[in-house]
Amino acid sequence: MGTSSSATSGGSVEGGGVVLPVGGGVGPVRTSASARVSLPGTPLAASAARRFVRAALADWAALEVPAADRVTDRVADEAILLVSELVTNAVVHAGTAVEVSCALDVSDREGEPPSLVVEVTDHHPTRVVRGDPPDPDERPEYAGGHGLRLVAEIAESWGTTYRRATKSVWFQMAVAPTSAAAAGTGAMGSAFMDAAATMDPAADTVAAPEGGFGAGTVREGLGPAPEGAGVVCEGRKEAVEIVAPAPGRAPVRVDPDWIQRGALSFLAEASDLLAGQFDEDMVTSLAGQLLVPRLADWCAIWLDSTSGPPRLARVWHASEGRIEGLRRVLEKEPPQVPAAVRGSAVEWPWPADPAAYGPGGAALACRLVAGGRALGTLLLGRAGLVRMPDEAVGLVEDFARRVALALASARRYTRQATISRVLQRGLLPSVIPRIPGVESAVVYEPTGDISAGGDFYDVFPAGDGRWCFVLGDVCGNGPEAAVVTGLVRPWLRLLAREGYGVGEVLDRLNQLLGEEAVEQAVEGAAEAVAAGVEAVGGPAGVVELMDGGLVGTGLPAGGGVARFLSLLYGELEPLGEGEGVRCTLASAGHPLPLVLRPEGGVRTVAAPQILLGVVDDVTYESESFDLAPGETLLCVTDGVTEHRSGDRQFDDEDGLAAAFALCAGLSAREVAERVRQAVDEFAAEPPDDDLAMLVLKVV
After folding, report:
1. CATH number, domain at 444?
2. To 10 degrees, the CA torsion angle through 210, 211, 212, 213?
3. Which of 417, 441, 460 is the last residue of a domain?
4. At what angle do helices 280-291 and 256-275 cross, to 10 degrees?
5. Which distant-in-sequence residues (6+ apart) come within 8 Å of 378 by Cβ?
6. 51 lies in some domain
């Protein structure tokens, strides 16, 4: 277990100030002190996290860190309770190591109290939120399950951050003003201890308080109460209301003021989280966690299917142990919302199975509609209510519209990605044939999986002992570029097998690209894409996003830009055992290939010539040379040579040749990997163009 801690005093912060995006409108803050610990994903992690928070607060107080003296026993106890729940959830559901950080922040705004911010991070951001039913023999260190509901009720603000490899849940608690801290609240001043009922240490159960929540309620995961625990204090029942299991739990009241103040903030957060998701199952998962426990005690989302009944995609309950039971009930009773209500929320009968749903309450069903198309159904319920307040109904409808838009975008993305993968499989060779006496390796990295790349390659036998290789780059990408690639590859194979030389193949290919039929095919592809997007439906804003950012910018009718093509085309003829090969090649607007000698020298071969498809009346020339055993030929697209780092390109000052020279003695596969690694390390940002390279080494 590793720990780190830092503290500051006065107006400076070691290593520079830290700005944390915390909720609740607190704004930018200056970290007064911070500590971090890494814990293994074992049952002992929760107790270790509690000790860590206690120790951090004690250390800061001993060091007289600014605002540390304002942390009351109540704030400390609440923070320890919440971090225990979050770490337990992370260990049980994510099953990974956990990082816990604790920071004492001072707001730059005058009059704003300092705050304690705690963050729990696990390393399984895409964990399945469903869980198995609770095991009656479950060890006590895994007890709990109140998790985010407890955080939402006790913390001043909280949130969840999804990163590529981690998921973090943080909460913020305001510390008391100086006067309140000086007065102190004592060891019994925590929120939970104020709310806890009288405790029987032997039975480890909570006696029912006056007007309370049921006698004999198990005090889950909290251990025995300290001596002197008193009766329930009026006005501090939040923790008992949350911790006491249903049906004894008192209904949580809907706060109309919170709905009025927080609706815009809630919807903005929902839009931010949902907008970047292109997987519909992830959209439904986030939607469920956003709704529960803020607006509902449980929710479920069905997704419509064109080929079968709706699919129950996500079920979420504030009590995680009820999720599986709730799912089993819902699978038998999918809601049938009248088509006439469209995107409006309608009251729905509270289900009759309290074991799955909890005590009675109010339920709403809402169709998920985007662009006039129904995509699914949202069903949610809140215990303890006769009917949902009008403010909550309106908020649910606004939220449902955002979920529907996110689902529509995810489906478009999935549909286009599937089309692109099918195109890509048809446009590239499934295997690279083995050329006698030559090692070969290919690197192909399109910029994304949503559109077919503009780069392509091919290696094939042409008869009479000749082997042909191709590396090309169509100007543009997406379906328009795919059409050109789909025409060029079979033309090249046909011309080569008809016996045309390298220069003649390029001459005839250039003439074919200028024909009207090719232009019509490219324009037809652009029109088909536009028609396909419109057929899916959806508001114009979403279609523009897809056209501009996902499918591609599109080509104007008659523009024909995608018909332009840079191409490196060559032939290899083995000269005999141990004598190398004869190489004949020509470059049409393509980066020139390089040859690496065994001792590390690098030379450029071929001469630059004009792009294919630009000028009709042009003659292409080829160049022939011998490749001796041990020599390596490197062919790349401009995604390698023009990869940028600021104002510099990878091939500035012969950067590609310098990287290639370091590959002497390596196999073709190792050369390809070494050059690709050099390109990746050249800039922090990934390449913004398709990247392809072909390596041929004579052995």
Report:
1. 3.60.40.10
2. 160
3. 417
4. 160
5. 287, 299, 300, 301, 365, 366, 367, 368, 396, 400, 403
6. yes
User: CA-CA distance, 148 to 611, in Å (whole number)?
Assistant: 60
How far apart are alpha carbons 171 and 544 in whole angstroms?
37
Helix, strand or coil, per DSSP, at residue 415: helix
Decide which of 25 and 567 is more confident.
567
On whether both 654 and 671 belong to a single domain, the answer is yes
Are both 304 and 374 inside the same structural domain? Answer: yes
Residues 39, 109 share a domain: yes
Contact at 8 Å (CB) between 682 and 650? yes
Q: What is the DSSP letter of 207?
A: P
- For the cut 50, the answer to whether the pLDDT of residue 252 exceeds it is no
User: Looking at the domain assignment, is residue 497 inside a domain?
Assistant: yes
Give DSSP secondary structure letters for 263-319: HHHHHHHHHHHHHT---HHHHHHHHHHHHTTTT-SEEEEEEEETTEEEEEEEEEESS
Helix (H) or strand (E) holding 52: helix 45-62
397 with 459, same domain: the answer is no
HSE-CB at 476 with a 13 A cutoff on CA atoms is 24
| Half-sphere exposure in the Cβ direction for 244 (13 Å, CA) | 26
- Top-confidence range, 327-331, 392-396, 400-404, 612-616: 400-404
Write the pLDDT tens digit of every residue in 608-642. Answer: 999 998 888 889 999 999 999 999 999 999 989 99
446 within 8 A of 455, measured Cβ to Cβ: yes
- Output the domain CATH number for residue 81: 3.30.565.10
Domain boundary among 367, 383, 417: 417
Is residue 372 left, alpha or beta, with left meaning phi > 0 and alpha meaning psi from -120 to 50?
left
Domain count, the chain: 3
Q: Phi first, then psi: give them for residue 151, nearest 5 degrees.
A: -60, -45
d(CA 279, CA 674): 34
Model confidence over 349-362: pLDDT tens digits? 877 665 556 567 88
195 located within any domain: no
> Do residues 413 and 452 both lie within one domain?
no
Task: Tell me the backbone φ, ψ of residue 266, rounded to 5 degrees.
Answer: -60, -45
- Residue 154 φ/ψ, nearest 5 degrees: -95, -45
Tell me the C-alpha distance between 668 and 662, whole Å. Answer: 13
Question: With 0-12 CB in 10 A as exposed, 13-18 as middle and 19+ as buried, what is 492?
Answer: buried
The domain of 56 spans 33-124+147-174
Question: Token digits for 697?
Answer: 């080494």
What is the rounded CA–CA span in Å between residue 49 and residue 91? 12
199 φψ region: left (φ > 0), alpha (ψ -120 to 50), beta (else) = beta
Are residue 166 and residue 263 in the same domain, yes or no?
no
CATH of the domain at 278: 3.30.450.40
C-alpha separations of 415 from 280, 370, 422, 614 in Å: 12, 16, 11, 34
What would the pLDDT profile of 369-384 be if each residue is shown by its tens digit? 888 888 999 999 888 8
Is 686 within a domain?
Answer: yes
Angle at 250 between CA 245 and CA 256, to 5 degrees: 125
Closest CA to 360 of 339, 335, 381, 391: 381
526, 554 Cβ separation under 8 angstroms = yes
Residue type, 645: S
Count the Cβ atoms, other than its own, within 10 Å of residue 162.
14
**Residues 370, 482 share a domain:** no
Considering the domain architecture, whether residues 362 and 303 belong to the same structural domain is answered as yes
